[in-house]
Amino acid sequence: MSHNTFGHLFRVTTWGESHGPALGCVVDGCPPGLPLTVADIQYWLNRRAPGTSRFVTQRREPDEVKILSGVFEDDRTEGQVTTGTPISLMIENVDQRGKDYDDIRDLYRPGHADYVYDAKYGLRDYRGGGRSSARETAARVAAGAVARRVLGEVQIRAAVVQIGKIGIDRTRWDWAETENNPFWCPDAETAKRWEELLDATRKDGNSIGAIVEVEATGVPAGWGAPVYGKLDAEIAGALMSINAVKGVEIGAGFGAAELTGVENADEMRAGNDGKPVFLSNAAGGVLGGISTGQPIVARLAIKPTSSILTARQTITRDGQNADVSTKGRHDPCVGIRAAPVAEAMLACVLADAMLRHRGQTGRS
Ligand SMILES: Cc1cc2nc3c(=O)[nH]c(=O)nc-3n(C[C@H](O)[C@H](O)[C@H](O)COP(=O)(O)O)c2cc1C
User: Fold this and answer.
1) What is the per-residue pLDDT across 309-359, written as a single tens digit (0 to 9) for each?
2) pTM higher than 0.90, yes or no?
3) Using CA positions, which residue lies closest to atom 22 of ligand 1?
């Protein structure tokens, strides 16, 4: 299988399966001399980890990262720093219960990659979905932690803004609130409604979709390139590659289709420092594939968890009709745990764009 690598100058390769001994990533192209410790990476991994509330899978994975290469420390480095060589990160899988999956070894679970892996490769690791499992996103989050080091002052954060039909009230948006509830919800009132919704959804043996919004602030004007290196195209591709993501929009996104030119114009005024001040951000921080200096804003539509207790119709590997319901441990709404993954992917894309911009122009 190829295509396990993305990025150009900041290049990430992930490896591993859900029920193998470990998974991880290799980050190549990280500049030297950046502080990087296990704790720096673990902080972000803990935010993606399973088992943190009753609304996410109860799989018990501590997701403890090991740095295998690419860092060094002596009395002149002021702590552990990157060396510029490939950074290899490994996370062991400790809570594997391959037996949970014996029932589905010959069944194709609707909404999963079971059928297409068989169709493509002629065999599949059915234990937890193997490589198609979102365990792989732990490696993305680890790589994202390295990207954040490259990005310095750029702040990247995500919030869940809709679960099922219940969206947040944007007038109550408070980033601090995302740390106070198990949903990364920026609106405390809506978080309470989601709690009821998700309890009822799980009781029904069902699951539900969500929308995550991710933003980067502090990105200067100029990152990204015409025409096949457009920043918005690279962001969309990276976010779309996250498991269960079925739609990505930037700025006004699909809503732009309903706007008039008057409404959509991000008008500009001269700021005190001579730099432009934009009066709105329908562009989501990107014009012509190049960052404008405004916040970069993207939204991801995430489908409901496919593994549900309610039986669904399917076929067996040898083409017989069958029913399947999925036991095992699953999130009722995978959108919640996708938020830290979205942050990590945006961080990796931006770190890559920053290094390429610097490489071509000599400026940051
Ligand atoms: C953080 C995260 C956790 C996930 N956990 C589950 C899960 O427990 N059960 C499930 O059916 N799908 C889960 N998914 C989604 C599947 O991995 C995904 O739907 C499947 O691999 C098919 O790929 P696709 O939906 O991208 O086409 C998760 C996705 C993410 C982002």
Assistant:
1) 999 999 999 999 999 987 766 789 999 999 999 999 999 999 999 999 999
2) yes
3) 112
Q: Which residue is listed with tokens 């990107």?
A: 286
Q: Kindly state the tokens that stand for 79.
A: 């702590």
The CA angle 207-208-213, to the nearest 5 degrees, is 140
Sign, CA torsion 77/82/84/89 = positive
Question: SS3 for 60?
Answer: coil
222: left (phi over 0), alpha (psi -120 to 50) or beta: left
Q: Is the Cβ–Cβ distance between 308 and 244 less than 8 Å?
A: no
CA of 305 to the centre of ligand 1 (A): 6
Which tokens is 228 given?
């096949």
By residue count, the chain amounts to 364
Q: Any residues with Cβ below 6 Å from ligand 1, and which? A: 57, 112-113, 129, 132-134, 137, 242-244, 303, 305-307, 330-331, 334, 337-338, 341
Helices 231-240 & 334-361 angle (0-180, nearest 10): 150
Closest residue by Cα to residue 305 from 225, 194, 207: 207
